[in-house]
Specification:
Radius of gyration: 16 Å
Strand content: 25-35%
Strand order of the largest sheet: 1-2-3-4-5-7-6
Structural class: alpha+beta
Number of strands: 7
Shape: globular
Number of helices: 6
Helix content: 25-40%
Largest sheet: 7 strands, mixed
Distance between the termini: 34 Å
Length: about 190
């Protein structure tokens, strides 16, 4: 499959108990986080070294972005009360700068009606990711050195009251083609 394909993708839940989903995700994760490691000058990023078993036991909810049946992007999160914590955002290096991370971010934000805040962290030198999050309304809340020489930036976004009200009226998002807004909370 050509990475230059402009066919819209589809966002769907990933089931890590399924060997196919889990295997495709670990391959994507290593490719995507290798690119980030090169951008920030450190390979101390935990997902680069994570085992398949650890990934499957992460307790995170995963969604994947597929183009012509190939997993080219994924995001994961955990919910705690009104807080939506995005744990992973990854895009295959051959598919960057095509709106995949933006589509996944918007989709995930709509997955949990009643969420009031969304948080995410990324490498402080990962300027493309920082730009994306800031364009989507996130504000940098601070930096932290997680291992010697590896700094991450913590970002936060407060969800609008109108969005929260409309989210409460919709049960759950449906998979949607990439160029479209997902039907469900993210569409409201």
């Amino acid at each position: 499959m050509s990475a230059k394909s402009h066919n819209p993708g589809t966002i769907r839940p990933l089931h890590l108990e399924d060997v196919g989903d889990a295997g495709a995700l670990i391959v994507l994760q290593r490719l995507a986080y290798r690119r980030e490691a090169d951008l920030i000058g450190s390979d101390a990023i935990p997902p680069l070294h994570e085992s398949l078993e650890a990934l499957q036991n992460s307790g995170e909810t995963f969604f994947g972005y597929e183009v012509e049946g190939q997993l080219v992007g994924a995001a994961s999160y955990k919910r705690s009360g009104a807080l939506l914590d995005i744990h992973r955002m990854m895009v295959h290096p051959a598919f960057v700068r095509r709106g995949i991370a933006r589509a996944l971010l918007r989709f995930v934000e709509g997955c949990e009606p009643g969420s009031e805040r969304v948080i995410v962290s990324t490498g402080s030198l990962n300027t493309p990711a920082l730009a994306l999050y800031q364009q989507q309304g996130f504000v940098a809340m601070g930096q932290e050195e997680v291992v010697p020489g590896l700094w991450i930036t913590h970002l936060e976004k407060r969800l609008h009251q109108e969005q929260m009200a409309s989210d409460e009226q919709v049960s759950s998002p449906q998979a949607a083609p990439a160029g479209e807004t997902p039907r469900g909370p993210a569409a409201e």
